[in-house]
């Protein structure tokens, strides 16, 4: 019998909702589009409906310079205040994925909000004290993945005022907190960071008026500079750049030139370009404020969240919109950065898709728009001079060309953000390939290519990584020496194409493109039963297999999902079991248990003594693994992965005979079996994501280790530094004359030092592929076992260099 003090969840926590996540302020009826190649020559035009099919020709000259195409400017995210991000594991465990899409900075809002990070409190004597543990949990993984936080100084903590959207009662206390925060990261070695004062003070996030805000800004700016003179301070991040609030703030800055002011920021939803940057530059100029860095710290097609899947934000329509809009930043020299809202979704955590606004879904899948970020991340930084003909006046179809004379590379990004099929002809001359072959690699994002929503909408919702989810080549060919190149591209509605040209010594011809390996969670959406359970407040047996790897005790759409919980017990010495019916006998070799991890009971209730067993009749059970004293009964974080060997069963059961750490409910501490998620997969090899915390089941060449610093997902990844080092695994039990694909996610510490993923000893010629990306990229090789071969050696290895390399999320799949 449950004894709960609240109706929210069995943890005694009252549901105190954070600030309301933005709803639509105006209806935006269509995706409005434009063409970047023309953006360099044409003035900004108002948004217009898409026009009929176009035929656009773009001719670019290699070696010329028409501007800078900067990833630092374009590839940034703004994480905002989804209530699900109060879970301190959601963003950190996906930071490797953010970096893989090319993100350079991530804006961190709500940093002083008690509900999120609870930085400030007072001791028994009333003195202020600061604890950065929770904020660090989200911020430090960004640094480790090569990104930077863009701090938003918001909102007022409870110890400084009764209302978090109002001015602090004492600006001296506020200044102490800001200065201590900046000093904290300076002590850790992070200086020169961006610090933005507040978020949308022209809306419902500020209630104290213009003068109070100006005073808050001045106090914040001085506190930041006191702690780190190299830090950048700015604001005020209004929702409406033309609001009286923005004008009033800039009037204050003009009248007080000694107040530190390094950048001006605002938000910009809708529209077809970033011409608001020109407006802001004029606002500064008319007030005789010297030109400043400009940041659009939130942008997207719309500020509105949907309620059903399949809207523009879910599909390739947002991808083509993003390609068109992002490239217009070329014409804004003072625009230092734009921040897409948001890296991960979460307005309604019960829905895989609900027309939310992120790069990744709440169940951690990459959306089509993220692949446009990945495309831009692959482009050289020098814009090539181009001539354009046939471009529609609304710029709905177009392209941009960039090059790198040192690397002798070139890239051409084309898009059709209209509703009809159009044609884009790409022409390049003066290319540096007059005496050498060159490789032409094409990437596509469209209705199916690079668009995970198409897989999901077709009914396949249980893949770890869908074959079309991450950006991958749709064509690779090697061309004979030539100083010119042409491609005629037929572009369906809402499509984006990237061509990358690089020098090569390979022979001419085309390369066969294979699909990457994937694995299916055969437990997702299955029927769950248990020895006992509680349903309510986001807890339900069905939520054990809903694809949510974390527990959320609040959401903005009132949809809460936490996972499975048993009834409560007075002591840990109790037996509870939970099982799933897979519907039929299914093959698997890996079982993953995700612990409860919301702030109220992070890592608690994970079993200490337990077994995992399989059955085909639901009565006779075969034990697959037994754990006693698991993790010494301490709090458990991240995926707990159990490689159980090749198995085929219909039922899978987890039986706990000693429960984990208790949870506090009201005034009592009770014991439960609680899990966020149960996953059952056929990974094809053991310890695929190194979540054991070691290299068990893998062998080492030279030296290697497991690191928590920069995983692609979860907690851990394999890493090794220098030449002649790597990891490998000999996989047995393969079938002769059978095609397999081995793959995973890799990154190199240096773009000039490849790390290789490969396979050998399978009855055929050794195969490998290089990865030089400094952010995680998916890599794979396909091979067919020999007539008498039942094993293969799969590996990741560095041949040369001194840089570090990382490897995560391996999978070996039969085709």
From TrEMBL:
Location of region: Disordered: 1-21
Domain called F5/8 type C: residue spans: 514-678
Compositional bias segments (type: Polar residues): 1-13
Pfam families, per database record: CBM_4_9, F5_F8_type_C, Glyco_hydro_39
Name this polypeptide is given: F5/8 type C domain-containing protein
Keyword entries, A-Z: Glycosidase, Hydrolase
Similarity-based family: Belongs to the glycosyl hydrolase 39 family.
């Amino acid at each position: 019998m449950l004894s709960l003090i609240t109706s929210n969840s069995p943890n005694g926590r009252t549901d105190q909702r954070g600030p309301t996540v933005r709803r639509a302020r105006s209806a935006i009826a269509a995706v409005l589009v434009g063409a970047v190649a023309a953006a360099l020559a044409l003035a900004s035009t108002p948004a217009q409906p898409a026009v009929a099919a176009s035929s656009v020709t773009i001719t670019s000259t290699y070696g010329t310079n028409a501007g800078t195409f900067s990833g630092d400017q374009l590839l940034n995210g703004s994480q905002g205040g989804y209530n699900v991000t109060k879970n301190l594991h959601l963003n950190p465990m996906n930071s490797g994925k953010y970096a893989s899409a090319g993100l350079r900075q991530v804006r961190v809002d709500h940093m002083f909000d008690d509900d999120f990070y609870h930085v400030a409190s007072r001791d028994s004597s009333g003195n202020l004290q600061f604890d950065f543990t929770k904020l660090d949990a989200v911020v430090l993984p960004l640094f480790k993945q090569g990104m930077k936080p863009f701090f938003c100084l918001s909102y007022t903590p409870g110890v400084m005022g009764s209302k978090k959207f109002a001015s602090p009662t004492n600006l001296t206390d506020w200044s102490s907190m800001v200065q201590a925060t900046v000093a904290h990261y300076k002590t850790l070695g992070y200086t020169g960071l961006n610090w933005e004062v507040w978020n949308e003070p022209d809306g419902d996030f500020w209630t104290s008026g213009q003068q109070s805000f100006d005073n808050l800004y001045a106090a914040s700016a001085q506190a930041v500079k006191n702690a780190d003179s190299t830090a950048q301070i700015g604001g005020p991040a209004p929702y409406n750049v033309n609001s009286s609030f923005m004008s009033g703030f800039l009037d204050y800055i003009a009248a007080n030139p000694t107040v530190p002011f390094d950048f001006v920021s605002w938000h910009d939803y809708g529209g077809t370009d970033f011409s608001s940057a020109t407006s802001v530059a004029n606002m500064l100029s008319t007030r005789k404020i010297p030109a400043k860095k400009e940041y659009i710290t939130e942008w997207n097609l719309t500020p509105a969240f949907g309620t059903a899947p399949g809207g523009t934000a879910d599909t390739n329509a947002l991808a083509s919109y993003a390609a068109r809009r992002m490239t217009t930043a070329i014409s804004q020299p003072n625009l230092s950065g734009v921040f897409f809202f948001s890296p991960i979704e979460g307005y309604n955590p019960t829905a895989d898709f609900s027309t939310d606004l992120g790069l990744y879904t709440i169940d951690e899948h990459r959306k089509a728009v993220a692949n446009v970020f990945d495309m831009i991340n692959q482009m050289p930084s020098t814009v090539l001079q181009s001539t354009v003909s046939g471009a529609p006046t609304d710029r709905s179809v177009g392209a941009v060309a960039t090059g790198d004379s040192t690397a002798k590379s070139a890239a051409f990004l084309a898009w059709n953000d209209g509703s009809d099929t159009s044609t884009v002809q790409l022409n390049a001359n003066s290319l540096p390939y007059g005496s050498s072959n060159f490789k032409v690699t094409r990437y596509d994002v469209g209705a199916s290519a690079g668009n995970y929503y198409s897989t999901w909408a077709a009914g396949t919702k249980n893949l770890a990584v869908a074959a079309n989810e991450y950006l991958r080549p749709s064509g690779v060919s090697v061309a004979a020496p030539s100083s010119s190149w042409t491609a005629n591209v037929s572009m369906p509605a809402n499509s984006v194409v990237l061509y990358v040209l690089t020098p090569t010594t390979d022979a001419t011809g085309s390369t066969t493109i294979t699909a990457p390996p994937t694995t299916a969670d055969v437990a997702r959406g299955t029927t769950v039963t248990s020895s006992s359970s509680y349903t309510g407040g986001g807890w339900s047996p069905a939520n054990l297999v809903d694809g949510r790897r974390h527990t959320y005790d609040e959401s903005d759409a009132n949809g809460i999902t936490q996972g499975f919980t048993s009834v409560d017990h007075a002591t840990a010495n109790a037996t509870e079991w939970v099982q799933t019916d897979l519907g039929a006998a299914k093959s698997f070799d890996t079982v993953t248990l995700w612990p409860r991890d919301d702030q109220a009971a992070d890592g608690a209730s994970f079993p200490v003594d337990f077994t995992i067993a399989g059955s085909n009749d639901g009565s006779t059970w075969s034990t697959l693994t037994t754990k006693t004293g698991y993790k010494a009964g301490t709090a458990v974080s991240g995926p707990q992965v159990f490689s159980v060997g090749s198995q085929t069963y219909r039922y899978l059961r987890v039986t706990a005979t000693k429960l984990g750490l208790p949870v506090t409910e009201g005034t009592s501490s009770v014991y439960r079996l609680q899990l966020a998620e149960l996953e059952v997969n056929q990974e094809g090899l053991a310890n695929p994501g190194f979540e054991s915390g070691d290299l068990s089941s893998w062998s080492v060449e030279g030296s290697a280790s497991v690191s928590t610093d920069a995983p692609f997902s979860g907690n851990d990844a394999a890493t090794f530094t220098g030449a002649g080092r790597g990891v490998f695994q000999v996989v047995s039990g393969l079938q002769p004359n059978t095609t397999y694909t081995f793959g995973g996610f890799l990154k190199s510490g240096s773009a000039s030092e490849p790390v290789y993923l490969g396979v050998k000893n399978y009855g055929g010629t050794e195969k490998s592929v290089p990865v030089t990306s400094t952010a995680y990229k998916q890599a794979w090789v396909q091979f067919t076992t020999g007539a008498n071969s039942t094993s293969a050696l799969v590996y990741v290895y560095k041949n040369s260099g001194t840089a570090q390399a990382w490897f995560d999320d391996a999978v070996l799949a039969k085709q």
